[in-house]
Amino acid sequence: MEQAELKNEARGGQEGATEGLDIDAAVAIGKKSGDIGSLANNGAADENAAVSEAASTLDDGDTTEALDAEETERRERVEHEALVATVKDVRTESADGRLVQPARWEEIGVVPAHLTLEDWEMLVYDRLQAYFAEEAERAAHAAAEPAPTYRTATRAVGVPRAFDPAARAEDEARAAAGRAHEAGVSTGEGMDAAGAREHTDGPVAPVAATRSATAVATSPVTSPQGAGVSPDRPSKTPDVASIASSSPTAAEEDDGVFEPFELTVEGVRGMVQLVDDEPTFVPYAPGEAPREELDFTGIKLLQGRLTYYLYDSDAMTDTFANWAFMAAEQNDAVMLVTLAREESRTYPRPMPADSLKNDPFHFDNARIEAAWREAHESGDYPDVEEAFASNGDRYFFSTDHISRAYAESLAEWASVERYRNV
Fold first, then answer.
1. CA 178 to chain centre
2. Which pTM value belongs to this model?
3. Strand, helix or coil at 225?
4. Which letter, b or e, does each residue of 31-55 get, where b requires 16 or more Cβ atoms within 10 Å of its Cβ?
5. For residue range 165-213, what is the model confidence (pLDDT) as tens digits?
6. Residue 290: which of 260, 319, 312, 315 has the closest Cα?
7. At residue 6, does pLDDT exceed 80?
8. Of 79, 90, 260, 356, which is the most buried if we count CB atoms within 10 A?
9. Structural domains of the chain sorted by starting position, each given as residue range(s) with its CATH number in brackets
């Protein structure tokens, strides 16, 4: 009897808990119960199906492995093409003064179909980190600069050559060689002339005359354009007629055969080929384009609170990238304080509030006011203050670098006085 009462109490508690749930939760619980029941009823059938599938996999295991390898290679090619396209987009956007966030990659369609945006974001991040690590290791193991070479003087320095025995001997030897050359009889040439006299009865022509005849024989011939062209050597000037006859364009005109060629249209690579006898641009399918080199040179990464940003340091300066980064992170108070301090320290001068309306910030008056109120009321930046010119123009400055009197005088000059002196 006690056991039956305990069972009834437990059943009543479960029913009460179910009544306390809303309709959707009850439906969900019912579905889950039904699923569990169906799993229990169909357990044997599923087990048999699994055994059959395993057996079929064992029968044609080689085919499955071949398909897997082929698919793996195809996906690797697709990912490589997507990485190349991603880097190209970063360079293009940096040239236009914009940072690139991973969310953009899905918009422009570079995310491979077999990956989600989050997976692609991590893949790009990992590849970049690997590249940065390789660059750091390469820099660490780079050969040290060679030590400077100090040359030792072989003769007196600062002594006139007339009083330097070594220099005087060099000058005398050079003069003797010049005289021998003019007479046409050097040491070696005199021996050749003597040997010729022993074997010939006629007179021997002077060496200088022989050289002159050789020079005339090998002298360049002047072309109609005035360039020297050697008769025993082909001209470096290309033959325009031969190039025209061998060019694909001439072959197409003569033979009437269209040769397909590769083309990139708005960042999309493809081939221009005949479709219905008309030249048509046909984009490459994913993984079918000729492999391009992946070059991360100049690409830099800025890590934000929720995402990261990429830019090309060859097209965008690091300072501008940091400004764009702060604007994208929307930490307006910190950005205003940072820029005011930098302006006061670097130039030094106060920062015009209207400069926040320019690229890459694009603030309006309301956003500037909200950023200043947040920075001022927080009490974390006591050195940053505001100043006004007589015409109402607003400026921000840091008292750690310039005084209020100096900031106000510069603000008045920039907004009012300099226009009076034009």
1. 60
2. 0.55
3. coil
4. eeeeeeeeeeeeeeeeeeeeeeeee
5. 777 788 888 888 888 888 775 455 444 544 444 444 444 444 443 444 3
6. 260
7. no
8. 90
9. 67-137+256-312 (no CATH), 330-420 (1.10.10)
